[in-house]
Amino acid sequence: MNFKLSPRLGRMTLALGAAGLLAVGSFGSVYAADPSTSTNSTTAAAVHHFCIPEWAAVKAHPGNADILRAAGDCEINRRFVTLDGLTYLVNHSDVLTADHKTDLLTGGGVNPASFVWEHSGLATLKASIDADTTIASLRTDIAKIAPDYRVYLLVVPKTHIVAAADGSAKVAAKFGPLATELQNLINLAKADGKDVTAAQAKLDDLNAKVGQANGLIAPVAGTVLPLSPADWNSGAAKPVFQAARTSLHQARTLLVDARKDAHQIIVLLGS
Amino acid sequence: MSVRTTLRLGTVRLGTALLGLTLVVAACNGATGTTANGGSGANLGAGSGTAAAGDPGAAAPASAEPTFDLGSLLSPNPTPDATPASTPGATATPPSGTQPTPRPAATTPPVISTTKASSLLSQVDHLLSEMDSELSNADAAANNPGE
C-alpha cells in the first residue's frame, strides 16, 4: 500500500508538530526552572500521603523487609514532597526577603535545617534504607526519619513564621510613607487654620504603635532560623516558636490599630 | 552732559557694549529717556550709514533713527523687543514690554487631598491580608500533628 502525503498536508502536519513541540518545551522549561520539582522526589506522582496503607501492610507482615522498606521509602518521599512544596512557596513568595529566602533554601550560614540540607540528608538516608537487608537495620534507619530531620515539626513552622515576620515587616514599612503623607496633610490643614489637634494625636499614636510593632517583629526571624532538629528534640525549639507567634500576633494587633488611626486621620482631614 | 550719540555699528557686540555704556550714563544722570540737559533722548542703534563710529559729532537725522524706551531697557527683565537692532537699516520697533510684568495672583489656600493617603492605606490593607495569611499558615503549622 502506498501512503502518499500531499505537500500541503505535509506542511500543515509539520507546522502542527512544531507548535506542539514548542508547547511541550515551554511547559518543560517552567517545570525545569522550578527547583521544587527536582528529581529527588522519588515518588512517581510526587503526591503527599500519610503512608497509612504502607504501615498497615507492615503490621500485617511484620517480618517482611520489602514491606518495611516500602513504608520507610514512603515516609521519606512524603517529606520530599513537603520540602518541594516549601521550596516552591519560598521561591514564589512576595513577602520573604531575598536574604531569608536564601536562608530557608540553602542555609545562608544561619539555618542548619535548610531545605537543601534536609533534602540531601533524607536522600542519603533513603539510599541506606534501600540498601538494608535486615529488619533490624531497616528499623534503625527508618527510626531516624523523623527525629533527625523534623520536617513537619521544625522546618514547616519555621518557614511560615519567617514568612509571617517578613510580611509583618512589610506592613510596618508601608506605614512609613503613609505617616509622612498624613503629616503633610496635617501641616496643610494647620496652615489653613484648621484645628488638627485630634489628627496629630492620632498620627502620634500611629507612629508609636508602628514602632512597637517593629520592635516585636525585628527579632523573630533571627531567633527562629537557627533552630535545628536537635533543638526540637531537646525541647528548646517549641517555646521559641510559641514566643515568635505570640510576638507576631501582638504586632498584627498594633498594626491593625495603627491602620485605624490612619483611617481616622483621613476622615478628620477630609471633613 | 549730552549722551546724544549717533553711531554706525558694525557688529552686534559693539552695539551691545555701547548700549550698556549709555544705559549706565543715563542711569547716573537719573534720566530715563531724557538727557540731563533737556535734549532729546538717547538714540542708539542703526544710524544712517554716513557717520563713523569714532565721530560722535556727526549727528544723523533724528527721524531716521529708531528710539528706545530706556525705562524698559533698565528694567530688571528687559524684553527681547527692547534690545536695539544692530543690523544697518533695520528698523527697531518700540518695545512692547514697557508694561511691568504682572505679578502672579495671590495663591489660593491649599486644597487638602487625601487621595494619596487613601491609596497608601489600601496598600497597607493588602499587605495586612498577606500577613494574616502567613500568620494563619504559621498557626496551622504549629498545630501540625506530624513529627
Number of helices of chain B: 3
Largest sheet of chain B: none
Please summarize the sheet with the most strands of chain A: none
Number of helices of chain A: 12
Poorly predicted runs of chain B are: 1-12, 25-98
**Shape, principal axes of CA atoms of chain A:** rod-shaped
Report on the architecture of this protein.
The complex is a heterodimer of chains A (271) and B (147). Chain A is mainly α and 271 residues long. Chain A is built from twelve helices and no strands. In chain A, α2 packs antiparallel against α3, α3 packs parallel to α6 (135-142) and α3 packs parallel to α8 (151-191). The radius of gyration of chain A is 28 Å and the shape is rod-shaped. Chain A starts with 6 loop residues before the first helix and ends with a helix. Mean pLDDT of chain A is 86; it is low at 1-45. Chain B has helices at 12-28, 70-73, 115-142. The longest helix of chain B is centred in the C-terminal third of the chain and has 28 residues, at 115-142. Chain B has 147 residues and is mainly α. Chain B is built from three helices and no strands. At the A-B interface, α8 and α12 of A face α3 of B.
Keywords:
heterodimer, A: 271 residues, mainly alpha, disordered N terminus, B: mainly alpha, 0% strand, rod-shaped
Quick description:
Chain A is an all-alpha fold. Chain A is built from twelve helices and no strands.
Detail the topology: elements first, then pairings.
The complex is a heterodimer of chains A (271) and B (147).
Chain A: H1 7-33, H2 52-60, H3 65-91, H4 98-106, H5 115-131, H6 135-142, H7 145-149, H8 151-191, H9 197-217, H10 220-224, H11 229-234, H12 237-270
Chain B: H1 12-28, H2 70-73, H3 115-142
